[in-house]
Amino acid sequence: MQALEKKQDLAAQKPARRIGKAQREERILGYLFVLPVVIVILVLVYYPLAKGFSMSLHSLNFAMGPSDHFVGFKNYLHVIQDPDTIATAIHTLGYLAVAIFVELVGGLVFALTLNSHFRGRGIVLALTILPWALPGIVSGVLWSRIFHPDNGVLNNVLYRLGIIQDYQLWFSKPLYSIFFIGLVFVWSSLPLTILTLLAGLQTIPSELYDASAVDGAGPVYQFRFITLPLLRPALAVALTIGTVNALGIFDQIYVLNGTALGTRSITLQIYLMTFAQLRFGEGTALAFWLTLVTLAFSVGYIRSLRSARG
To answer: Which of 185, 214, 217, 237 could staple 221 via S-S, CB 3.0–4.6 A?
Structure first.
C-alpha cells in the first residue's frame, strides 16, 4: 500500500516538476530577450550620462590648455552666474511661452476640427502632419526664404499690399526675433500636439455628448464640462512634450539668426560653450541644469494633472 502511494506521489510530482522547469526556462528566455535592450540602454544612455556628470565636476577648459582637476559643483555655480546664461535662459522662456500658448490653442482648435467628419478630412490630416515630418534645419531654411530682408516672400507680399513702406529686417529686434522664431518652431511642432489632442478626443465616448444634448446642453457647455475634463491626460502629455521640445530649441535659431546673443537659447549656449569655447566642464554642467529644469516642468505637469483628478 505504501509503495503504491509513493508511486502516486512520484507521478504527481513529475507534472509539477515539468511545469516548474517550463516556468524557469520561460523566465530565462525572457531575460535573454530583454538583455540586449538593457545593454543598449546602458551603453547609449546611462554610460554617457555618468560620463557627462563626471565631466561636469572637473575643470576641462581646453581653451586654457589641458586641465582636468576635480572642482566639484563649481561649474554649476559659475554657469548660472554667467550673464550670457541668464540672457539665454530668458530667451528660452520666451520661446517656451510662445510655443506652449500657440500649440495648445492652435492644437485644440485643429484637433476639434479634425475630430469631426467632413469631406477631405484625410487630406487635411496628411497636410497637417507634413511640417512635423521635416527636420528642423529644413523648416528653418524654408522660413529663412520667407523672412529674408531683401527678397523674402513676407516682405514682398506686405510691400505689394501697401502694409509696409520699406522692406523690414525681421530679426533686428530681439523681442520680435524671439516671437518669429518661436512661430517657426511651432509650425514644425504643432502637428504632434494636434495628433496628441486628437487621440484624446477620440477616447471620449460620444454617448456623453448625446446624453447632454438631450438634457439641453449646448456646444459651449459640452466643451467646458465634458471635453476639457476628459481631455486633461492628453493636455498633460501635450504640455510635457511641447515643453521638452521648446526647451531644446536649436535648429530654427541657428538657421534663422545664427549664434546672435539676442536670440540665443540655452541649448545653443551649451553648444557654443562646449564646442566653440571648449569649456567642456561648464558646458556639461549647463546641460544638466537644463535637464533638471525640464524634469521639474514634467513633474509639475503630472502633479497638477493628478490634483485636478482628485
So the answer is: 217
Amino acid identity of residue 193, one-letter, is T
Rounded distance between C-alpha atoms, residue 143 and residue 148, angstroms: 8
- Count of domains in the chain? 2
CA 147 to CA 258: how far, in whole Å?
Answer: 14
Cell numbers at 219, concatenated: 456646444
- Separation between Cα atoms, residue 153 and residue 90, nearest integer Å: 30
Q: Which domain holds residue 16?
A: 2-56
Q: Are residues 46 and 148 in the same domain?
A: no
pLDDT digits (tens, 9 = 90+) for 40-98: 999 998 999 999 999 999 988 887 766 778 898 999 999 999 999 999 999 999 999 99
- 21 class by beta-carbon count within 10 Å (0-12 exposed, 13-18 middle, 19+ buried): exposed
Q: pTM (2 decimals)?
A: 0.85
Phi, psi at 265, each rounded to 5°: -100, 175
Triad 91, 97, 100: Cα angle to 5°: 135
Whether residues 98 and 33 fall in one domain: no
Residues 140 and 247 in one domain: yes
Q: What is the CATH number of the domain that holds 216?
A: 1.10.3720.10
d(CA 164, CA 158): 6
Instruction: Residue count of the chain, please give it.
Output: 310
- For residues 294 and 229, the answer to whether their CB atoms sit within 8 Å is no
